[in-house]
Write a structure and sequence with these properties.
The chain is mostly helical. 83% of the residues lie in helices and 0% in strands. The longest helix is centred in the middle third of the chain and has 33 residues. The chain is globular, with a radius of gyration of 20 Å.
Amino acid sequence: MQFNSNQLTKVVIIAAICVFSTQFGVTVIAPLLGEWVEASETPSFVSALIFSAFTLVSTPLSVPGGIISDKFGRKPLIVAGLLLYAVASALFPFSNNTYDWIFVRALQGAGAGLFFPAVTALLAEVTSYEERGHALSVYNIGLGVGLAAGPISGGVLFDIYGIRMPFFLCVVFALLSVVLVLLFVPEPKERLKRKRKRLALGDRERKALTLSCVVIFFGIGVAAIMGALFSPFAFAPESLKLSVGIIGTILSAMFAVFVILQTGFNRLMKLIGEIILSIVGLFLCACGLFVLYFATSIPELFIMSVFLGAGLGAISLGTLTLASKAAGEGEREQEGKVMGIYYTVFYAGLGGVPLVCGALSDVFGARLLFLAYAVLLFVLMIVVWRVGVFSARKG
């Protein structure tokens, strides 16, 4: 079912506002939580658990969340996810120890596991193939703005107004999103008394979903290792003494590029297709990691952030659109499950890649790890080209 143009525009904008509120709610904690964990002198395993609790909960919930949204509707899962984000934000100022922080992060993860498959399935359900790229590029703009604005806002609001203000703002954004969804987003399909169906994908759709999942796993890993390893302690060559402020600015620049290029990437995707756009994203990310490996100055690090922001933007839009199209159009009623599979792999990469890379960096060093990951992305480019593009042309 497709909405008319006015309805579709309204739904897409509300989806972007919703995803902004979720990402703002997660990243506003980043500058505060990092300092608190370090000050608490918790064991490394417990510290890792605090940061990984989000993905440990969101990963196994994504497929069930998508299936439930296929059966009962997108709105209940979107609203439930947003409310969990709101509850987590409300509880965080009153969290006084490591176990409270783990619980709050787990609540956020539960919200993500319910929210993301449902909201992207909604966009897939209400758009045609021709409209899909534009809708998801607007959605990605909301996501990128939330990622970029959260860390900066969290630090500034905390310094000026104290601990409660950043999280009060998170609650307001989440509840505002709930109101917008309840009032202005119609449920596309009637799902009462619907029988559960098995996932039915043809060979072409199955290959598209597999490729999108493989690329996003390693692509989102780039963003994950930036947060986990790109710090004054993990990456600090003698010629570069990086402050937390400089690192935050570099990461914010990366997300700003992610946002700015979304519209252009959508136009490019119409010309070259989702798979080639994803390959372009892998290439840009690999170039960014190569720059990072050889970087000896702060300007070079900003060049790196441009490459990575552009690469992540291309990968996100290309794989998300490819996965959503794998569900097909018409009455298959499987968008939620397909997007649940996509986000299961997404969160597996977000949580698993930095754990593996963190352990390897202790042995080989962060610089060598960046170089090795760049080579891995180049190899992945060749595999995706042969499987996705070359085989399709041959067939």
